[in-house]
Amino acid sequence: MTNLDAAQLAPMIDHTLLKPEATRADVDALAREAEELGTYSICVSPSMLPVQTSVKVATVCGFPSGQHQSEIKAAEAADSVRRGADEVDMVINVGLAVAGDFQAVEADIREVRDAAPAPVVLKVIIESAALSDEQIVGACEAAERAGADFVKTSTGFHPAGGATEHAVALMRRTVGDRLGVKASGGVRTREAAEAMVAAGASRLGLSGSRGVLEGQAGGSGY
């Protein structure tokens, strides 16, 4: 377990609101709360862009299934960048990873990377709870080959579940210190957040950031 105070933990958080029923007022409130808490960023749906805030702005791409044509994901990512996104969290085609077709996984990621080049930060959601260890490793290696900046556990929407310490540790071993690792999905407590950091996470996707930082349970833990 890694013991972190709120000032150390907050800059690792993507303060997240991806509920389908979220309103513009909800997103504005999220941004104000992120500024108050000192989180690294907010993460919102593409339709909510642009957002006026002093923190970084992340959005999602191919969310939540990943079963979009690569050119559609690429167009979505490019449009989000035009609308002010600093970071894009894309979902891989999980079925390709399950089938072991990691060349296709890499090609899918690379198309989004080309559409949203650096300095945009590209995070690749592999939906780790739906994959075997071998598939997690293959997806992470494909993401690195395609030029991603982060690998990320989960959307928070898959019935198989969200982040686990085991998956985070495996992802960290696979990418070393070359890429970031983001834990998201089911991280609802301070203890869980610290456990993910101890396992190797360098970023956390949280919807209940205030509760986590104040040592209380809260949020859906995206």
Automatic annotation (TrEMBL):
It holds the Pfam family DeoC. GO terms for biological process: 2-deoxyribose 1-phosphate catabolic process; carbohydrate catabolic process; deoxyribonucleotide catabolic process. GO terms for cellular component: cytoplasm. Keywords: Cytoplasm, Lyase, Schiff base. Its EC number is 4.1.2.4. Pathway: Carbohydrate degradation; 2-deoxy-D-ribose 1-phosphate degradation; D-glyceraldehyde 3-phosphate and acetaldehyde from 2-deoxy-alpha-D-ribose 1-phosphate: step 2/2. The gene is deoC. The active site is at residues 89, 152, 182. Its main location: cytoplasm. One of its GO terms (molecular function) is deoxyribose-phosphate aldolase activity. SUPFAM superfamilies: Aldolase. CDD domains: DeoC. This is Deoxyribose-phosphate aldolase. It comes from the Bacteria. Belongs to the DeoC/FbaB aldolase family. DeoC type 1 subfamily. It catalyses: 2-deoxy-D-ribose 5-phosphate = D-glyceraldehyde 3-phosphate + acetaldehyde. It is found in: Cytoplasm. Catalyzes a reversible aldol reaction between acetaldehyde and D-glyceraldehyde 3-phosphate to generate 2-deoxy-D-ribose 5-phosphate. The keyword Cytoplasm applies.
